[in-house]
Amino acid sequence: MDMKSGKLIWPLLAASIALSACSGSTKLTPLEQLQTQGPQEIFQAAEKELADNNADTAAVYFGEVERLYPYSEWAQRALIMSAFAHHEDGAYEFSRTDAQRYLDFYPASKDAAYAQYLIALSYYDQIDNVSRDQGVTFQALQSLRTVIERYPDSDYATSSLLKFDLALDHLAGKEMEIGRYYLKRGHFGAAINRFRVVVEDFQTTSHTPEALHRLVEAYLSLGFEAEAQTAGAILGHNFQNTTWFNDSHVLLTERGLSTEAGDTRATRWLATIWRRVIQGKWL
Protein backbone atom coordinates (compact mmCIF):
# COMPACT_ATOMS: atom_id res chain seq x y z
CA MET A 1 0.00 0.00 0.00
CA ASP A 2 1.48 3.32 -1.02
CA MET A 3 1.26 6.56 0.92
CA LYS A 4 -1.29 7.98 -1.47
CA SER A 5 -3.79 5.17 -0.97
CA GLY A 6 -3.13 5.24 2.81
CA LYS A 7 -4.15 8.87 2.94
CA LEU A 8 -7.52 7.87 1.52
CA ILE A 9 -8.15 4.80 3.71
CA TRP A 10 -7.44 6.29 7.17
CA PRO A 11 -10.04 9.06 6.88
CA LEU A 12 -12.60 6.44 5.80
CA LEU A 13 -11.77 4.20 8.78
CA ALA A 14 -12.00 7.11 11.17
CA ALA A 15 -15.39 8.09 9.81
CA SER A 16 -16.61 4.50 10.09
CA ILE A 17 -15.48 4.29 13.73
CA ALA A 18 -17.13 7.57 14.52
CA LEU A 19 -20.42 6.44 12.96
CA SER A 20 -20.27 3.16 14.86
CA ALA A 21 -19.71 5.02 18.12
CA CYS A 22 -22.61 7.34 17.44
CA SER A 23 -24.85 4.42 16.51
CA GLY A 24 -24.03 2.62 19.77
CA SER A 25 -24.62 5.66 21.94
CA THR A 26 -28.08 6.35 20.49
CA LYS A 27 -29.46 2.85 21.05
CA LEU A 28 -31.95 3.63 23.82
CA THR A 29 -34.09 1.34 25.93
CA PRO A 30 -37.86 1.61 25.54
CA LEU A 31 -38.12 3.61 28.77
CA GLU A 32 -35.31 5.93 27.68
CA GLN A 33 -37.09 6.45 24.39
CA LEU A 34 -40.23 7.51 26.29
CA GLN A 35 -38.28 10.37 27.84
CA THR A 36 -37.90 11.92 24.41
CA GLN A 37 -41.67 11.90 23.84
CA GLY A 38 -44.49 14.13 25.00
CA PRO A 39 -47.17 13.06 27.53
CA GLN A 40 -49.81 12.38 24.91
CA GLU A 41 -47.47 10.17 22.89
CA ILE A 42 -46.53 8.13 25.98
CA PHE A 43 -50.18 7.87 27.01
CA GLN A 44 -51.11 6.57 23.56
CA ALA A 45 -48.24 4.09 23.66
CA ALA A 46 -49.58 2.84 26.99
CA GLU A 47 -53.06 2.48 25.53
CA LYS A 48 -51.63 0.43 22.68
CA GLU A 49 -49.88 -1.90 25.14
CA LEU A 50 -53.16 -2.27 26.99
CA ALA A 51 -54.99 -3.10 23.77
CA ASP A 52 -52.32 -5.71 23.01
CA ASN A 53 -52.99 -7.35 26.41
CA ASN A 54 -49.69 -6.15 27.84
CA ALA A 55 -51.23 -4.70 30.99
CA ASP A 56 -47.99 -4.83 32.97
CA THR A 57 -46.12 -2.78 30.35
CA ALA A 58 -49.07 -0.42 30.01
CA ALA A 59 -48.99 0.26 33.74
CA VAL A 60 -45.30 1.18 33.52
CA TYR A 61 -45.95 3.53 30.61
CA PHE A 62 -48.85 5.24 32.37
CA GLY A 63 -46.60 5.64 35.38
CA GLU A 64 -43.99 7.33 33.19
CA VAL A 65 -46.55 9.92 32.07
CA GLU A 66 -47.13 10.89 35.69
CA ARG A 67 -43.42 10.83 36.53
CA LEU A 68 -42.20 12.84 33.57
CA TYR A 69 -45.13 15.28 33.33
CA PRO A 70 -46.60 15.41 36.85
CA TYR A 71 -48.48 18.70 36.39
CA SER A 72 -50.04 17.97 33.02
CA GLU A 73 -53.65 16.99 32.43
CA TRP A 74 -52.31 13.71 31.06
CA ALA A 75 -50.83 12.85 34.46
CA GLN A 76 -54.29 12.77 36.04
CA ARG A 77 -55.65 10.54 33.29
CA ALA A 78 -52.58 8.32 33.42
CA LEU A 79 -52.92 7.74 37.17
CA ILE A 80 -56.43 6.28 36.96
CA MET A 81 -55.41 4.26 33.90
CA SER A 82 -52.39 2.95 35.78
CA ALA A 83 -54.75 1.72 38.51
CA PHE A 84 -56.87 0.02 35.85
CA ALA A 85 -53.85 -1.54 34.11
CA HIS A 86 -52.49 -2.92 37.38
CA HIS A 87 -55.89 -4.43 38.10
CA GLU A 88 -56.00 -6.04 34.67
CA ASP A 89 -52.55 -7.47 35.37
CA GLY A 90 -53.72 -8.91 38.70
CA ALA A 91 -51.42 -6.59 40.65
CA TYR A 92 -54.21 -5.68 43.07
CA GLU A 93 -52.09 -3.98 45.71
CA PHE A 94 -50.54 -1.65 43.14
CA SER A 95 -53.99 -1.00 41.70
CA ARG A 96 -55.30 -0.01 45.13
CA THR A 97 -52.32 2.25 45.74
CA ASP A 98 -52.82 4.12 42.47
CA ALA A 99 -56.58 4.37 42.93
CA GLN A 100 -56.19 5.72 46.46
CA ARG A 101 -53.62 8.28 45.30
CA TYR A 102 -56.08 9.35 42.64
CA LEU A 103 -58.76 9.88 45.30
CA ASP A 104 -56.28 11.82 47.43
CA PHE A 105 -55.21 14.11 44.58
CA TYR A 106 -58.49 14.44 42.67
CA PRO A 107 -61.38 13.81 45.09
CA ALA A 108 -63.84 15.91 43.06
CA SER A 109 -62.96 14.35 39.72
CA LYS A 110 -65.61 12.63 37.61
CA ASP A 111 -63.46 9.49 37.84
CA ALA A 112 -63.35 9.50 41.65
CA ALA A 113 -66.25 7.02 41.80
CA TYR A 114 -64.40 4.71 39.44
CA ALA A 115 -61.24 4.96 41.55
CA GLN A 116 -63.20 3.89 44.63
CA TYR A 117 -64.82 1.11 42.60
CA LEU A 118 -61.38 -0.14 41.54
CA ILE A 119 -60.34 -0.32 45.18
CA ALA A 120 -63.41 -2.44 45.91
CA LEU A 121 -62.77 -4.63 42.88
CA SER A 122 -59.17 -5.21 43.94
CA TYR A 123 -60.55 -6.99 47.01
CA TYR A 124 -63.65 -8.50 45.43
CA ASP A 125 -61.79 -10.18 42.58
CA GLN A 126 -59.71 -12.09 45.12
CA ILE A 127 -62.81 -13.80 46.56
CA ASP A 128 -62.64 -17.12 44.81
CA ASN A 129 -63.26 -19.91 47.28
CA VAL A 130 -65.35 -20.08 50.47
CA SER A 131 -62.81 -22.47 51.99
CA ARG A 132 -60.17 -19.73 52.08
CA ASP A 133 -59.74 -17.02 54.69
CA GLN A 134 -62.54 -14.48 54.36
CA GLY A 135 -60.67 -11.41 55.60
CA VAL A 136 -60.48 -10.10 52.05
CA THR A 137 -64.26 -10.51 51.77
CA PHE A 138 -64.81 -8.15 54.69
CA GLN A 139 -62.50 -5.62 53.03
CA ALA A 140 -64.43 -5.98 49.79
CA LEU A 141 -67.71 -5.38 51.63
CA GLN A 142 -66.39 -2.24 53.30
CA SER A 143 -65.07 -0.84 50.02
CA LEU A 144 -68.23 -1.70 48.09
CA ARG A 145 -70.32 -0.03 50.79
CA THR A 146 -68.21 3.11 50.34
CA VAL A 147 -69.02 3.18 46.62
CA ILE A 148 -72.72 2.68 47.31
CA GLU A 149 -72.93 5.34 50.04
CA ARG A 150 -70.52 7.93 48.65
CA TYR A 151 -71.48 7.66 44.97
CA PRO A 152 -75.12 6.46 44.94
CA ASP A 153 -75.87 8.09 41.57
CA SER A 154 -72.76 6.85 39.81
CA ASP A 155 -72.59 4.16 37.15
CA TYR A 156 -70.89 1.87 39.67
CA ALA A 157 -73.47 1.89 42.47
CA THR A 158 -75.68 -0.80 40.94
CA SER A 159 -72.74 -3.09 40.20
CA SER A 160 -71.44 -2.53 43.73
CA LEU A 161 -74.82 -3.48 45.21
CA LEU A 162 -74.81 -6.73 43.27
CA LYS A 163 -71.26 -7.55 44.28
CA PHE A 164 -72.05 -6.61 47.89
CA ASP A 165 -74.80 -9.24 47.97
CA LEU A 166 -72.52 -11.82 46.39
CA ALA A 167 -69.78 -11.06 48.91
CA LEU A 168 -72.28 -11.52 51.73
CA ASP A 169 -73.18 -14.85 50.18
CA HIS A 170 -69.52 -15.87 50.35
CA LEU A 171 -69.36 -15.04 54.05
CA ALA A 172 -72.56 -16.94 54.73
CA GLY A 173 -71.17 -19.86 52.74
CA LYS A 174 -68.13 -19.94 55.00
CA GLU A 175 -70.32 -20.06 58.11
CA MET A 176 -72.39 -22.85 56.58
CA GLU A 177 -69.31 -24.86 55.71
CA ILE A 178 -68.04 -24.71 59.29
CA GLY A 179 -71.50 -25.35 60.70
CA ARG A 180 -71.94 -28.50 58.61
CA TYR A 181 -68.53 -29.69 59.77
CA TYR A 182 -69.56 -29.40 63.42
CA LEU A 183 -73.00 -30.88 62.78
CA LYS A 184 -71.59 -34.03 61.15
CA ARG A 185 -69.30 -34.56 64.12
CA GLY A 186 -72.02 -34.13 66.72
CA HIS A 187 -70.83 -30.76 68.00
CA PHE A 188 -74.35 -29.39 67.96
CA GLY A 189 -73.80 -26.30 70.09
CA ALA A 190 -70.94 -25.11 67.87
CA ALA A 191 -72.98 -25.87 64.76
CA ILE A 192 -75.95 -23.88 66.08
CA ASN A 193 -73.72 -20.87 66.66
CA ARG A 194 -72.61 -20.91 63.01
CA PHE A 195 -76.10 -21.36 61.59
CA ARG A 196 -77.37 -18.64 63.89
CA VAL A 197 -74.89 -16.18 62.36
CA VAL A 198 -76.32 -16.92 58.90
CA VAL A 199 -79.92 -16.45 60.05
CA GLU A 200 -79.22 -13.27 62.01
CA ASP A 201 -76.51 -11.53 59.97
CA PHE A 202 -76.90 -12.94 56.45
CA GLN A 203 -80.62 -13.55 56.23
CA THR A 204 -80.87 -12.06 52.73
CA THR A 205 -78.45 -14.61 51.29
CA SER A 206 -79.21 -17.87 49.50
CA HIS A 207 -77.96 -19.87 52.49
CA THR A 208 -80.71 -18.88 54.94
CA PRO A 209 -83.17 -21.71 54.11
CA GLU A 210 -80.54 -24.38 54.66
CA ALA A 211 -79.32 -22.67 57.84
CA LEU A 212 -82.85 -22.83 59.29
CA HIS A 213 -83.15 -26.50 58.34
CA ARG A 214 -79.80 -27.29 59.94
CA LEU A 215 -81.00 -25.55 63.08
CA VAL A 216 -84.01 -27.87 63.12
CA GLU A 217 -81.62 -30.83 62.82
CA ALA A 218 -79.28 -29.58 65.53
CA TYR A 219 -82.01 -28.65 68.01
CA LEU A 220 -83.78 -31.97 67.55
CA SER A 221 -80.48 -33.76 68.11
CA LEU A 222 -80.17 -31.94 71.44
CA GLY A 223 -83.81 -32.62 72.33
CA PHE A 224 -84.79 -28.94 72.15
CA GLU A 225 -88.13 -29.46 70.44
CA ALA A 226 -89.56 -25.98 70.95
CA GLU A 227 -86.52 -24.40 69.35
CA ALA A 228 -86.67 -26.87 66.45
CA GLN A 229 -90.35 -26.05 65.91
CA THR A 230 -89.69 -22.30 65.93
CA ALA A 231 -86.86 -22.65 63.39
CA GLY A 232 -89.16 -24.83 61.26
CA ALA A 233 -91.97 -22.27 61.50
CA ILE A 234 -89.69 -19.45 60.34
CA LEU A 235 -88.48 -21.66 57.51
CA GLY A 236 -92.04 -22.51 56.49
CA HIS A 237 -93.14 -18.88 56.59
CA ASN A 238 -90.39 -17.63 54.30
CA PHE A 239 -89.30 -20.66 52.28
CA GLN A 240 -92.24 -23.05 52.20
CA ASN A 241 -91.62 -24.12 48.62
CA THR A 242 -88.05 -25.26 49.21
CA THR A 243 -86.68 -28.75 49.73
CA TRP A 244 -85.21 -27.50 53.02
CA PHE A 245 -88.70 -26.89 54.42
CA ASN A 246 -89.88 -30.27 53.15
CA ASP A 247 -86.97 -31.98 54.90
CA SER A 248 -87.63 -30.08 58.13
CA HIS A 249 -91.33 -30.92 57.93
CA VAL A 250 -90.46 -34.62 57.72
CA LEU A 251 -88.08 -34.42 60.69
CA LEU A 252 -90.63 -32.61 62.85
CA THR A 253 -93.66 -34.71 61.96
CA GLU A 254 -91.72 -37.92 62.54
CA ARG A 255 -91.49 -36.82 66.16
CA GLY A 256 -95.11 -35.80 66.34
CA LEU A 257 -94.26 -32.11 66.14
CA SER A 258 -95.86 -29.49 63.94
CA THR A 259 -94.24 -26.71 61.97
CA GLU A 260 -95.96 -24.15 64.14
CA ALA A 261 -93.74 -22.22 66.50
CA GLY A 262 -92.95 -23.82 69.80
CA ASP A 263 -92.44 -21.93 73.04
CA THR A 264 -90.64 -18.86 71.66
CA ARG A 265 -89.52 -17.94 75.16
CA ALA A 266 -87.13 -20.91 75.14
CA THR A 267 -84.48 -19.37 72.89
CA ARG A 268 -84.31 -15.60 72.96
CA TRP A 269 -82.57 -15.06 69.65
CA LEU A 270 -85.03 -17.31 67.79
CA ALA A 271 -87.91 -15.56 69.53
CA THR A 272 -86.57 -12.25 68.21
CA ILE A 273 -86.39 -13.62 64.67
CA TRP A 274 -89.92 -15.02 65.10
CA ARG A 275 -91.36 -11.69 66.21
CA ARG A 276 -89.69 -9.85 63.34
CA VAL A 277 -90.41 -12.31 60.56
CA ILE A 278 -93.80 -13.70 61.52
CA GLN A 279 -95.33 -10.97 63.66
CA GLY A 280 -93.63 -7.94 62.14
CA LYS A 281 -92.57 -6.62 65.53
CA TRP A 282 -89.11 -5.04 65.48
CA LEU A 283 -89.06 -3.54 68.97
UniProtKB/TrEMBL annotation:
Instruction: List the subcellular locations.
Output: Cell outer membrane
Function in brief? Part of the outer membrane protein assembly complex, which is involved in assembly and insertion of beta-barrel proteins into the outer membrane.
- Alphabetized UniProt keyword annotations: Cell outer membrane, Lipoprotein, Membrane, Palmitate, Signal
Q: Which InterPro entries match?
A: BamD, BamD-like, TPR-like_helical_dom_sf
One Pfam family, short name: YfiO
Instruction: Show the SUPFAM superfamilies listed in the entry.
Output: TPR-like
Signal peptide limits: 1-23
According to Swiss-Prot or TrEMBL, what is its membrane topology? Answer: Lipid-anchor
Q: Which family is annotated? A: Belongs to the BamD family.
What organism is listed for this UniProt entry?
Amylibacter marinus
Note the subunit structure: Part of the Bam complex.
Question: Residue ranges of the Outer membrane lipoprotein BamD-like domain?
Answer: 39-231
Q: Which domain of life is it from?
A: Bacteria
Q: What is this protein called?
A: Outer membrane protein assembly factor BamD
